[in-house]
Write a structure and sequence with these properties.
The chain has 169 residues and is mainly alpha-helical. It is built from six helices and two strands. It comes from Microlunatus antarcticus.
Length: 169
């Protein structure tokens, strides 16, 4: 499953396929947060924190990289160009656009798929602060985290689109 569509037909499949389907669906929810938005809309702050729609997707890229490229593949955060602190992964630069952050997330997602394919659910990641953790645990953790952030994003989108409808824009 590497297309940006929701997974179907996994109700009676095996554990790994079900976990990967649930994770896939949350990845789709995350990347779709930016659908139809321009750069200004995606960057707009609607809450007191620095959380924006663009920042949420950028953070999701960080999360994918931390759990797969760092935890499983043992790559250094600096080599990946990701911050040490999770809160810094929401910070946007001038170069961050809807297109660039979508591409960033797709690269992180694709890398995660490639790395996970080489491991079974009981394989353990040894290169993170919670080590050792199994691929199964990482899948469940990511479903939880991405679903939470997708929910935040849904609310931000609703606020953004309602404000624009009310303002005629």
């Amino acid at each position: 499953m590497d297309v940006e569509e929701r997974a179907e037909g996994t109700v009676t499949s095996g554990e790994r396929e079900q976990l990967e389907s649930f994770l896939h669906d949350q990845r789709v929810e995350i990347i779709n947060l930016l659908d139809g938005l321009d750069d200004e809309q995606a960057r707009r702050r609607l809450v007191p924190s620095a959380t924006t729609l663009l920042g949420l997707v950028k953070h999701a890229s960080f999360v994918e990289r931390v759990w797969f490229d760092v935890a499983f593949a043992g790559r250094a955060r600096a080599d990946l160009g990701i911050p040490d602190a999770a809160e810094d992964s929401f910070v946007l630069t001038q170069d961050d656009t809807v297109a660039s952050v979508r591409a960033l997330y797709r690269r992180a997602w694709d890398s995660a798929l490639e790395i996970a394919a080489g491991h079974d659910l009981d394989s353990v990641a040894l290169h993170n602060r919670r080590s050792p953790v199994s691929l199964r645990w990482i899948y469940l953790h990511l479903v939880r985290e991405l679903a939470r952030h997708a929910g935040h994003g849904d609310i931000l989108r609703e606020q953004l689109l309602a404000a624009e409808d009310a303002g005629g824009g």
